[in-house]
Amino acid sequence: MTVLEEITQFAQEMQDAKQAERTNITMFPSEVVELELWHESRYFVVIYFPRLGYYCVDEVRDDDEIGSGYRFSFPDFASARSKVISLMKEPPNGGAVKKVSLSG
After folding, report:
1. Is the pTM for the entire model greater than 0.85?
2. CA–CA separation, 102 vs 6, rounded Å?
3. How far, CA to CA in Å, does 63 sit from each of 59, 60, 89?
């Protein structure tokens, strides 16, 4: 199975299981393949870089800048797939609690 076929199949599985409300797959001229997944107002990316032979995975957060990199990378699709699923199950912002001052 090609990278594009694996990613396409995964995107369809996620939509069929209602784990992604929307997906988008882009194949660039460089043969980089990007999968974008939207789940409960959160945005996730799985991207394959053929020159490096790695899949990168991350949740894109409001404070992330364009081209800021990826927190996770894997040499195989199965690991990348597992990671994006686990990220989707985590609370938003990786479970970080935002502290709010109640003093006026």
Report:
1. no
2. 49
3. 11, 8, 20
- DSSP assignment letter at 7: H
Phi/psi region, residue 64 (left: phi>0; alpha: psi -120 to 50; beta: rest), is beta
Average pLDDT, the chain: 86
Query: If residue 14 lies in a helix (H) or strand (E), which one and from where to where?
Result: helix 3-16
Domain ranges of the chain: 3-92
pLDDT recorded at residue 31? 94
Cβ(40)–Cβ(68) below 8 Å: no
Report the sign of the C-alpha dihedral through residues 88, 89, 95, 100, in that order. Answer: positive
Structure confidence at residue 68 as a pLDDT band (50, 70, 90): low
**Average pLDDT value for residue range 43-64:** 88
* pLDDT score recorded for residue 93: 66
